[in-house]
TrEMBL record:
CDD domains: YvcK_like (cd07187). Belongs to the gluconeogenesis factor family. Its main location: cytoplasm. SUPFAM superfamilies: CofD-like. This is Putative gluconeogenesis factor. Keywords: Cytoplasm. NCBIfam families: CofD_related. It holds the Pfam family CofD. InterPro entries: CofD, CofD-like_dom_sf, Gluconeogen_factor. Required for morphogenesis under gluconeogenic growth conditions. It is found in: Cytoplasm.
Length: 343
């Protein structure tokens, strides 16, 4: 039985007082899809441009704190949802404090044998709200209100998902196909061979209704950046969400990664990344693909591949000046701002 009743709260007073400063009026309604650090980068940029912002997050994580909570309590894995909420916190003392609270991890004196070791407090807070409210969407809305989040966070599906794929790798000089199950395992499988036939279980799992509505009503949907097979592609593998993404009247943007040499995409070029999208969802078209020119390889080949998906390539410096393969929020925000104004 839910212990919290009544309508959802307004933003806490400390956060509500700051709502006047920030994204401009008449900003576009944007849905950003992904998971993990890639989605956080996208949200950190988009929150500077609009408060009409919805994050739709993968729910296939089975490692670390999320995996433990998923296995023990049968809940959606909260980790990527927590990271999305943290990314939407205000860049103020209030927002930074709650971001740090949400991201704080416990270190047990018993090491890995401790029941709380490596658990993120935000994961526990989110699961607590789910248990009290009996509704994942409502629980995330309460958490967002507490954090003063600029936007809302939704799971892509209403049940936990398992992602698996077949990996073709060489064993004793012979090519063999083996099935790799679980996001944490598939995320590193590409370093041992080619990833093929990626799929979600249970087949035909229900998408989050609120996420489908958000995609339908959005002005823009933005997919990526992120782990290509385990954070980006899953949104196009879930049948109801895939249909919504392909049929929406919103404009569609695909944001490329800043490195093609992740553990799950070893040996793949930027064009190969686009081919993955086309292979699994040939009906999915794009209006814009944003990419840093340092990682696209052959420019003409990349531009042609984007055109085959129905869009145009926007090439510009969007990476961090540190040299690490992470997006700079201000540079990415500038690219999004120009994209919103030109289309």
């Amino acid at each position: 039985m839910a212990l919290l009743t009544g309508s959802l709260p307004m933003l806490p007073a400390a956060a509500a007082n700051r709502r006047g400063s920030g994204p401009q009026e008449n900003a576009p309604s944007v849905v950003a899809l992904g998971g993990g650090h890639g989605l956080s980068s996208s949200l950190s940029a988009l929150r500077l441009l609009t408060s009409e912002l919805t994050a739709v997050v993968t729910v296939a994580d089975d490692g670390g704190s999320s995996g433990k909570l998923r296995e023990e309590l049968g809940v959606l894995p909260p980790g990527d949802l927590r990271m999305a909420l943290a990314a939407l916190c205000d860049d103020t003392d209030w927002g930074r404090t709650w971001r740090d609270v949400m991201q704080h991890r416990f270190t047990s004196k018993q090491g890995a044998d401790g029941s709380l070791d490596n658990h993120a407090l935000g994961n526990l807070l989110i699961v607590t709200l789910w248990e009290l409210l009996g509704d994942p969407v409502a629980g995330l809305q309460w958490a967002g209100a507490l954090l003063g989040a600029r936007g809302r966070v939704l799971p892509m599906a209403s049940v936990p998902l398992t992602i698996e794929g077949d990996v073709l790798s060489e064993v004793d000089g012979v090519l063999r196909m083996r099935t790799v199950s679980g996001q944490s395992q598939l995320a590193v499988a590409g370093s041992a061979g080619n990833v093929n036939n990626v799929r979600l279980l249970p087949a035909g799992a229900p998408a989050c209704v609120d996420a489908l509505t958000a995609v339908e009503l959005a002005d823009w949907v933005i997919l990526g950046p992120g782990s290509w097979y385990t954070s980006v592609l899953p949104h196009l593998l879930l049948p109801e969400l895939r249909e919504a993404l392909c049929s929406t009247t919103a404009k569609r943007c695909l944001t490329m990664n800043l490195s093609n040499e992740t553990k799950e995409t070893v040996g793949m070029s930027a064009v190969d990344h686009l081919e993955v999208i086309r292979r699994y969802a040939p009906e999915f078209t794009v209006d814009v693909v944003i990419a840093d020119p340092t990682v696209i390889g052959n420019r003409d080949e990349f531009v042609a591949a984007v055109a085959e998906m129905g869009g145009r390539a926007v090439l510009g410096k969007v990476g961090s000046s540190t040299g690490k393969p992470v997006h700079d929020p201000l540079r990415l925000a500038t690219a999004f701002h120009d994209m919103f104004g030109e289309n």
